[in-house]
Amino acid sequence: MDPASGVIVAQTAEGNSVVLGLMKCARIWLCPVCSATIRHQRAQEITRVVVDWIRRGGIAVLVTFTARHAHTHQLADLMDAIQGSRKASAADVRAAETKLFAALAAYDDAVRLAKFTVAAASRDAGKGLKRKAAAAAKEDVAPDVFAAWNGVLDAKAVLRQTGRTAGAYQRLISGGTWAGRPDRNETGIRDRVGYLGMIRATEITLGLANGWHPHIHAIVLLGGTTEGEKADKKITGLFTPSDSAIAEFEGHFRSVWTTHLKRINPEYTPSDEHGVDFKRLKTERDAQDLGQYIAKLQDGDKTVSPANEVARGDLKEGRYGNMTPFQLLGRIGDIIGGMPGEDAEGDGPLEWCLGSWHEYERAVRGRRAIEWTRYLRSMFGIEGGDTEEDDLDALFAADGANEYRAGIRVQDETWGKVTGRALDLAAVQAVEGTKGIDMEKVAEVVVAAGAALDTVALLTPAEIAEAYAGILETLAQRREEAAARRRRETEKHDQEDDVEDAEPVDAEAKEKAQQERLLRRHTRRETVPAAR
To answer: What is the 3-state secondary structure (H, E, C) of 241-284?
Structure first.
């Protein structure tokens, strides 16, 4: 919140209201407010690309991937299995390495102390009792040695988690069968179906009976030819893959998905009919109105568009007694607010709901809810990315896309009182409408919050325009920063691809390599050596 300008609640030309001047968290997994805006922006991007591709004559397929799950399975484990894990930040990696080397030092100290204690006990024992004394000393120090070794194993596990691990999703588009073998002059399935890329979204539901159910929706674009590499890759033409090529593509996805999940944990192995589902995106109503088919919103309509099926997880409701994370959060809020559990939406006692939400928070940390195949956006002229920073850009873009015609300025102290009494929604609703702002409704909210009426001012169209100009200036600056950031990320990815197998050459890399050799030497055995 900007203390100088306060909060502006503005009315759009359509009669909606938007709150400006507040810091946004952009947490698509955890914040219902930010999630709705971000996902709406993402759905528009997806709609634009899918409509464009189908109009050109290309093929788009909605593929749903699921894994078998039970109430005993941890969400983080299921997410790793289907989605994989991303490499942690450099700071997190350094912290994990520091923790591991501290654990190794503590283990070495524990072993040295154990050896000293055993030797001292043997030395001080009388004749004929040395062996017995040493055995007793070993038994005494063994818990400390084991505890220190467990600390090493725990730290080692944390360090492992900082590295990238491939899930079943990543395995779909890797290997010679998929990509071909240029050294043998063999093409792969990718070339035979004209694969351009995928847009993937991960959704999660939860039920008392069957636990967590993470699943992936992906729109796969087929039937294209390209030239160039990486950021320079361009679409050059279209073709219709043969029925046998499409069947080969579907069989490959089903086989790889099921095989990889089975390898990770046999309990995750889905049935043949439920593991992978394919749905060709086409309309039988009106071929000229693809936008109506693909871009239709779920709000008030049971028809689900492919774009919303992928991007708008916030609009969905759990099925068969399951809850979405935001439904779970709503149930927690209702019960804490005093509503009887049997009347609150969803299922489960409060303690279970709170524990489930905490598990959800930990499991989605650092993951991307929606992700495009690298360079797919650039092939269709779409700016943006998939990081949290890009999600924040989407929020600013949503503000900049509106035309504001009226509004109120609320001083920051007053807005604090409004939110402190959970009246922020009432404040937003008071500004909605198409006939101007009803200041009597606004005054009711201000008085209910215990604030003074002179802390809220009606803004003239000119003042709204001035405030809007400031928003556009901030938005333009963010867009420039975002474009520069994405260029740096693209260059970084390209460099990583080019030097992935290169030997370390600088002093820092050599030191890290030396530490890794030390780590392998210390942790080669998974059982603690006995103190001698």
So the answer is: CCHHHHHHHHHHHHHHHHHHHHHHCHHHCCCCCCCEEEEECCCC
